[in-house]
Amino acid sequence: MCCSEVLSQYSKRTREIAKGLLTGISSSLGIDQSDMKKDLKLESSLQIFSNGKYKSIEHRAVVNNAVTRMSVVMTQGPSLDAVVKPAHQLVDEEISPAAYVPMTYKQYLDLQQNNPIDGKKCLDRVRVHA
After folding, report:
1. What one GO molecular function would you report for this record (predicted)?
2. Which residue in 43, 49, 88, 119 is a FRET match for 109, CA 20 to 30 A apart?
3. Residue 67 and residue 7: Cα distance in Å, rounded?
4. Digit-coded pLDDT (tens) for 39-58
5. H-helix or E-strand containing 84?
6. How far from 63 is each of 67, 70, 85, CA to CA, in Å?
């Protein structure tokens, strides 16, 4: 198998895994999976969609000079025009207002790409500050 075929298969399998994870996350949040797929056209930044119930993790690595370390990034996300926002089932203006500003996935990616890498500051930029 050539490199492009391996990457294609890898991408396909990671997308299947992401779908399975979203099924479990939807269930744990009490959200119908079809709502998640409809609202996000599949996956999203889960911290925003869950209105802060699921926290984004910060990537950390421990390295040493004895072995070479390599990271491979595979992103799973919605279409660029999908609006990423807290799920309507998790938002109540009085009890649990939206914690994040709605934006397209493209706007969110642009925000990430056009700002310095600094932990989870990108999420802080889209958080609603009361």
Report:
1. metal ion binding
2. 88
3. 24
4. 554 434 566 767 777 666 56
5. strand 83-84
6. 8, 10, 36
Q: How far apart are CA 39 and CA 130, in angstroms?
A: 25
- HSE value, Cβ hemisphere, 13 Å, CA-based, for 11: 9
pLDDT range class, residue 59, cuts 50, 70, 90: low
Cα Rg, the chain, nearest whole Å: 17
- Reported as a single tens digit per residue, the pLDDT across 86-99 is 888 888 888 889 98
Burial class (CB in 10 A: 0-12, 13-18, 19+), 38: exposed
What single string gives the DSSP state of each residue in 85-121?
---GGG-BTTTB---B--EEHHHHHHHHHTS---TTH
